[in-house]
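Tokens as discussed.
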């Protein structure tokens, strides 16, 4: 299905031009709403997501695209008010939602809502990832679908999805006015595990590690497999001190409990690098490079530890 050519509803004066360019071109569905949930602007991906036909739906509330109740039994209007209140107070929410398209088709999605400055006032950005595509991606369908965002082995988001979100966060950093913290980690001496016990055991270690780390994170944190045995976390809004504390807590959670993989009891450790963007000038690539430098400092300083990039970011 081709993306319909639907213009922005409102110019949303006050947003940086760079944001508008990225907003229109990003493959993730995104809408901008006011404090009541009224649609102010949507990108082409959101037009496809909701199956807009360019008609009267332009100025409806986002609640018009939800069933009356969410799967957990909460009224959609109550859930929207609660999460928009958090976003407009400077917070951020991330949860699963059930939407319906303009043609009334059920549409499960993972949704992140964040408040943004827009001139003298504030708006909220609502990012929506179609969970139907994610479920279709499980089972190594990434190459076939071309649009999947998950890693087939661990079930985590993949590098492509992570980079899309990180680039967006850096693009709107001046509007959100929140730090952008990264925790990059990988397994210590993982090659020894694969060489000694075989790749099926190594794969099971990666699966169990991913599940264990995910349990330690906040619901708003984004965890992704960055490549091989390397993983990365975007800890939305955390201060440098809180991010470092999170990293040490993850190190302890992995180190203190052995892994039982196909009958083999393995003691696994991880090394972690932390970098936090607090200045507009730092690019996503520079932030990743600093996190990588901190990770390798942790490796060089004995492994099973946390190092923090101390330079200006």
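Sequence:
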């Amino acid at each position: 299905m081709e993306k319909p050519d639907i213009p922005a509803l409102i110019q949303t004066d006050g947003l940086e031009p760079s944001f508008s360019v990225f907003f229109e071109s990003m493959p993730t569905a995104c809408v901008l709403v006011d404090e009541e949930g009224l649609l102010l602007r949507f990108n082409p991906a959101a037009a496809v997501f909701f199956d807009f036909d360019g008609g009267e739906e332009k100025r409806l509330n986002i609640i018009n695209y939800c069933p009356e109740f969410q799967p957990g039994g909460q009224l959609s209007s109550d859930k929207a008010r609660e999460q928009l209140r958090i976003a407009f107070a400077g917070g951020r929410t991330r949860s699963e939602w059930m939407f319906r398209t303009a043609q009334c088709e059920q549409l499960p999605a993972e949704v992140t809502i964040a408040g943004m400055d827009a001139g003298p006032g504030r708006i909220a950005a609502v990012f929506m990832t179609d969970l139907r595509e994610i479920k279709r991606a499980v089972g190594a369908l990434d190459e076939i679908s071309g649009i999947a965002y998950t890693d087939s082995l661990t079930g985590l988001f993949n590098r492509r999805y992570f980079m899309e979100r990180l680039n967006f966060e850096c693009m709107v950093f001046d509007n959100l006015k929140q730090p952008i913290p990264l925790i990059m980690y990988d397994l210590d001496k993982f090659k020894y595990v694969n060489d000694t016990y075989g790749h099926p055991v190594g794969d099971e270690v990666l699966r169990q590690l991913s599940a264990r780390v995910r349990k330690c994170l906040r619901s708003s944190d984004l965890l992704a497999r960055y490549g091989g045995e390397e993983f990365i976390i975007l800890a939305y809004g955390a201060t440098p001190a809180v991010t470092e504390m999170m990293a040490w807590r993850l190190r302890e959670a992995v180190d203190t409990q052995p892994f039982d993989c196909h009958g083999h009891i393995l003691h696994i450790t991880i090394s972690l690098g932390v970098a936090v963007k607090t200045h507009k000038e730092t690019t996503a690539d520079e932030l990743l490079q600093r996190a990588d430098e901190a990770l390798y400092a942790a490796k060089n300083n004995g492994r099973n530890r946390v190092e923090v990039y101390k330079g200006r970011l």
